[in-house]
Amino acid sequence: MKRRRTIALAVATAAAVTTLLTGCGALDKAMDCVKTADAIATSVGKLQQAVSNATNDVTQIEESLDSISTELGNLENTTDNADLAKAVDDLTKGVDSVRTAVKNGDTTPDITPITDAAAEVGKVCTPG
């Protein structure tokens, strides 16, 4: 949960600074960054919780992945920034990788591809 807030706060701060430094032209990118950060933070939090609870109910991981996929699909359709679209695509691939691991019987899948994609969004949204 703390990591989720940290990612969202870092990206939102970067978006705000970008807007202030570059003017209205960066407003669209800043808004895309904020939306992306929020969706990613929510997605990563849901997945971490599902993986933590997998010993009680493995289906929670699949349900969480379905929810993340829906969020990412909606986000992908709302952003027109190519760099953010790529980061969302990478995150989607991470979700697919985790989904495959779960289908292959892994109840504690490696979510590193997802957290790496979240970090990439932070880089995209950081000015300079």
Number of strands: 0
* SSE run: HHHHH
The percentage of residues in β strands lies in under 5%
Distance between the termini: 28 Å
Report Rg.
15 Å
User: Helix count?
Assistant: 5
Low-confidence stretches: 17-22
Largest sheet: none
Overall 3D form: elongated
**Helical fraction:** over 70%
Helix/sheet category:
mainly alpha
Q: Mean pLDDT across all residues, rounded?
A: 73
Write the layout of secondary structure elements.
Blueprint: H1 2-22, H2 27-52, H3 59-78, H4 82-103, H5 112-125
Helix pairs in contact: 1-2, 1-5, 2-3, 2-5, 3-4, 4-5
Molecular structure report:
The chain is mainly α and 128 residues long. The chain has helices spanning 2-22, 27-52, 59-78, 82-103, 112-125. The protein is elongated, with a radius of gyration of 15 Å.
Question: Short description, anyone?
Answer:
With 128 residues, this protein is mainly α.
Features:
128 residues; mainly alpha; 5 helices; 80% helix; elongated
